[in-house]
Amino acid sequence: MNAPLRKVVFPVAGLGTRFLPASKVVAKEMLPVLDKPLIQYAVDEAVDAGADTLVFITSRYKHSIADYFDTAYELEQKLERSGKKELLAAVRNVVPKHVRCVYVTQSEALGLGHAVLCAKPVIGDEPFGVILPDDLIWNRGAGALRQMAQFAPSRDAGVIAVEEVPHDETHKYGIVDAEKADGRAARVRHVVEKPKPEVAPSNLAIVGRYVLPGKIFELLEKTTPGAGGEIQLTDAIAALLRDGDVHAYRFDGTRFDCGGKAGLVRATLHFAMQDPALADIARAAVAEAVQPN
Ligand code: G1P
């Protein structure tokens, strides 16, 4: 496609039960990895891919996400008066000036496919990106979504990020049956949502990055509840395959599944090790924690 992705959708209405009791009041997307909430990493990746319109599919329990991207006048004034320039820039730059945020309420939790369908009035008919903020992807170079947008062969093609997972974990993911890979990409033959290991066509799992054509909306409208009784994005992608092109893309980068405790711990340690002010502290803390009592 080689055109920047202008619009990116963030489905953020989910309850985050794996982080209860914290997620009773803290949206899981607001949980921090060091000093940035998960949603900030996702937004930075979208902006890196060229997005100027960020579409958050949210719910009544997630007002903190809109608050976070809103201007905090009093705080900014205070920081300005006390000359804290770096902090002021950090607060102001959560989204660059040319980027606008749009919030759409998903009033019923009917599944990821339904959440993406809620973005239809904002997206229209153009290709768009989807980022699931639980999947935090770190890369030294271009972000995963930018890599996928640059690869996308046409406006009508779908591109889904994939990664191999242990065979006994296929039931946690959308699983792809793909042709032989040509470099990072492979043409998808079939996708299935959360198959048991015994029936999974492979161990190539969809991770939370998608580049989708506008056509996906009419397919989502026809999608009936699937795995877990939910309207699944994976099922609409399976329908897209019937008369279109979908590519599985092995991105360059490291994924942390921050929808659960293990991934959040791994991500925190990883980012601490990347920070010269924290690397030694993190190393010493781990060494101390693994000492037998
Ligand atoms: C969703 C998708 C699934 C994908 C996963 C990646 O599942 O439905 O296909 O593999 O995200 O994180 P969820 O984790 O929301 O159950």
Structural account:
The chain is 33% helix and 23% strand. It contains eleven helices and 13 strands. A nine-stranded mixed beta sheet has the order 5-4-1-6-11-8-12-10-9. Strands 2-3 form a two-stranded antiparallel sheet. Strands 7-13 form a two-stranded antiparallel ribbon. It is an alpha/beta fold and 293 residues long. Helix 10 crosses helix 11 (279-289). Bound molecules: 1-O-phosphono-alpha-D-glucopyranose. Residues 112, 132, 135, 173-174, 193, 205-208, 232-234 line the site of 1-O-phosphono-alpha-D-glucopyranose.
Short synopsis of the structure:
The protein has 11 helices and 13 strands.
Largest sheet: 9 strands, mixed
Q: Return the CATH architecture.
A: Alpha-Beta Complex
Mean pLDDT: 95
Could you say which small molecules are bound to this protein?
1-O-phosphono-alpha-D-glucopyranose
Which CATH C-level class is it?
Alpha Beta
Secondary structure tally: strands? 13
Query: SS-based structural class?
Result: alpha/beta
Helix content: 25-40%
Strand adjacency order, main sheet: 5-4-1-6-11-8-12-10-9
How far is the first residue's CA from the last residue's CA?
57 Å
Q: Write out the CATH superfamily name.
A: Spore Coat Polysaccharide Biosynthesis Protein SpsA, Chain A
Q: Enter the CATH topology name.
A: Spore Coat Polysaccharide Biosynthesis Protein SpsA, Chain A
Q: What is the element string, with H for helices and E for strands?
A: EEEHEHHHEHHEEHEEEEHHEEHH
Shape by Cα distribution? globular
Number of domains: 1
Number of helices, where a helix is a run of at least 4 consecutive DSSP H or I residues: 11
Rg is 19 Å
Strand content: 15-25%
Indicate the low-confidence ranges by residue numbers: none
